[in-house]
């Protein structure tokens, strides 16, 4: 498996090597994972580009501006308030981007033959189900969108609170909450 040097690659690399540790082929164990440039990974790069064009870049800039203006820091409280105010809107937007991506037309290719079928080899390796279950226990978590009690805290701070329908509403709510919390 080849991955770029993204943050998720460390976990993927550990899992890949764990699943392949007892195999005896030339790509077993530590040889089953390689980190390097993914210049051939055009599909995911195209998707990231579409995500940025489709509004993701705007959100990234908004959160950078919040940080740069001093209205966001790395404390858990700020992170939880940010998630409380913005996650529902971000989920809506990500859903729309995924829908657009999954329903976009794909151009027909000039060469329509399927690559690699003739005289090919199946590289499928079976994995022990118990090993999969171990990894599920270690690497998955059912985490809530935000910490327990944050919604009750917002109700105390702002009793007339209404879930934001637009980014400007979420920003306003976030700033109001943070302003109140600065005084405590």
UniProtKB/TrEMBL annotation:
Q: Which InterPro entries match?
A: Integrase_dom_put
Q: Where is the Integrase core domain?
A: 2-115
Q: Domain of life of the organism in this record? A: Eukaryota
This protein is called: Integrase core domain-containing protein
Species source reads: Acropora cervicornis (Staghorn coral)
Q: What is the lineage of its organism?
A: Eukaryota, Metazoa, Cnidaria, Anthozoa, Hexacorallia
């Amino acid at each position: 498996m080849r991955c770029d040097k993204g943050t998720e690659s460390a976990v993927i690399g550990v899992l890949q090597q764990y699943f392949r540790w007892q195999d005896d082929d030339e790509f077993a164990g530590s040889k089953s994972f390689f980190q390097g440039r993914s210049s051939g990974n055009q599909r995911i790069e195209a998707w990231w580009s579409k995500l940025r064009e489709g509004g993701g870049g705007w959100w990234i800039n908004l959160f950078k501006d919040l940080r740069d203006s001093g209205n966001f820091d790395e404390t858990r409280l700020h992170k939880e308030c940010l998630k409380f105010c913005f996650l529902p809107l971000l989920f809506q937007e990500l859903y729309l981007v995924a829908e657009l991506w999954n329903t976009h037309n794909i151009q027909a290719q000039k060469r329509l033959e399927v690559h690699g079928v003739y005289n090919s080899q199946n590289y499928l390796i079976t994995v022990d189900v118990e090993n999969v279950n171990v990894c599920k226990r270690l690497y998955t978590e059912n985490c809530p969108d935000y910490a327990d009690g944050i919604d009750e805290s917002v109700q105390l701070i702002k009793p007339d609170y209404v879930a934001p329908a637009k980014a400007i509403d979420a920003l306003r709510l976030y700033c109001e909450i943070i302003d109140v919390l600065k005084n405590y």
